[in-house]
Amino acid sequence: MTTTIATRSGDLELGPMGLGTNVWGGRDEKPEASARVLEAALAAGITLVDTAEIYQGGSSELSIARALASWKAAGAGGARPVILSKFFPWPWRVSRSSLIAALHASLGRLGLEAVDVYLLHFPLPPLSLETWVDALADAVDAGLASAVGISNCDEKQLRLAHRVLADRGLPLACDEVEFSLLNRAPERNGTLAACAELGVPLVAYRPLGSGILPAAAPTTKGLRKLMAPRTDPRRLEELRSLLASIGAAHGGKSPSQIALNWVIAKGAVPIPGARSLAHLRENAGALGWSLSEEEVALLDAAGS
Length: 304
Known about the structure:
The protein is an alpha/beta fold. Helix content is 44%, strand content 14%. It has a domain at 4-208 and 267-273: Alpha-Beta Barrel (TIM Barrel). The strands form two sheets. It has an eight-stranded parallel beta sheet with strand order 3-4-5-6-7-8-9-10. A two-stranded antiparallel sheet has the order 1-2. Helix 3 links the parallel strand 5 (82-87) and strand 6 (115-120).
């Protein structure tokens, strides 16, 4: 299943899954490793690369630029990946022009003249959502972004952003929200249904519940641990057992691959992170096959 984002000049193909780069650009990163991950992602049909100006203080965008340069120098061929970045409305950003300034800074780090998709990271005050979305439209008019969207917005905010952009003659590219078997809020609060109604892709971050869903996942630490979903340990183990059972029925798929396929089955585009080829290959194993309706229903009943 391929998801597309509409733009004024045509559609951008996202593919069924993206690549999250929240931890790219860290102190211990080896640039050649990120380049190999990007190349493997593209070979697997994972064409969306998700970043933000606040990821690693901008180092995630720099890391992507280095990986893109290595990929281009290698002459691997094929289309450049779809690059998505995000603007964070810090409290001191009290003018809509600050969005354009931030986008110019992101483009400088990414080494691009225009980003494919640019999002408002959070709908935070002091400026209104309408003001920020209108500023996103300015970015498209200025040729700095092909498509624009929102992140961490509920159904009401989604519909508002959709209307504001429609008044500017633009489609809403996507709504990026947290969504997994451990966080079903978008499915329950109407956001997922509204996305389907309006033809707006839902991009799912933390599709593995901050890494705590798969039994073999490393222990989540620091701020990411504080942000991880709270789940009853016994229920979590029951869910993991079900994931393993369904995985066995699909020829030995891992719990994380089943969980990612469940997100795809819900009509969303998961963007799991990958810092190594092993991580990337594990994620890519969720592609090219589908859960049955019965299996999706079983996971629905067992999930949060």
